[in-house]
């Protein structure tokens, strides 16, 4: 047995170990893939559901802004205008009295 025989034996052993390791890693990847596919599908469903909820909340916010907040702002502006008008009239009469 010369040195080349030991070299060939080492190459065969390492090639066998590498082949077994690659097969083992492939099996692990396949098993993980089978377990993760349902999770990815449910994540897609959750994302679609979340998108639907966001769209509905956006519609509610738009409706609230148009139907509630805008009239309240207009009423507040009207009250502020009336208060400024009254303040102007009061100031005009105060200056005349002085």
Describe the model:
97% of the residues lie in helices and 0% in strands. It has one helix and no strands. With 98 residues, it is mainly alpha-helical. It is rod-shaped and about 125 Å long. It has one helix at residues 3-97. The relative contact order is 0.04. The mean pLDDT is 87.
- Give the fraction of residues assigned to helices: over 70%
Straight-line N-to-C gap: 128 Å
Q: Using the alpha-carbon principal axes, give the shape.
A: rod-shaped
Biggest sheet statistics: none
User: Order of helices and strands, N to C?
Assistant: H
| Rg (CA only) | 40 Å
Q: On the 0-100 scale, what is the average pLDDT?
A: 87
Number of E-state strands: 0
Question: How many helices?
Answer: 1
The SS-based structural class is mainly alpha
Percent in strands:
under 5%
What are the low-pLDDT stretches, counting only 5+ consecutive residues below 50?
none
């Amino acid at each position: 047995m010369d040195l080349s025989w030991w070299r060939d034996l080492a190459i065969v052993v390492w090639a066998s170990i590498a082949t077994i390791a690659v097969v083992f890693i492939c099996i692990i990847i396949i098993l993980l893939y089978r377990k993760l596919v349902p999770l990815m599908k449910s994540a897609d469903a959750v994302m679609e559901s979340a998108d639907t909820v966001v769209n509905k909340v956006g519609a509610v916010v738009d409706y609230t802004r148009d139907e509630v907040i805008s009239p309240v702002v207009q009423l507040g502006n009207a009250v502020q205008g009336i208060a400024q008008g009254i303040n102007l009239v009061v100031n005009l009469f105060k200056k005349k009295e002085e």
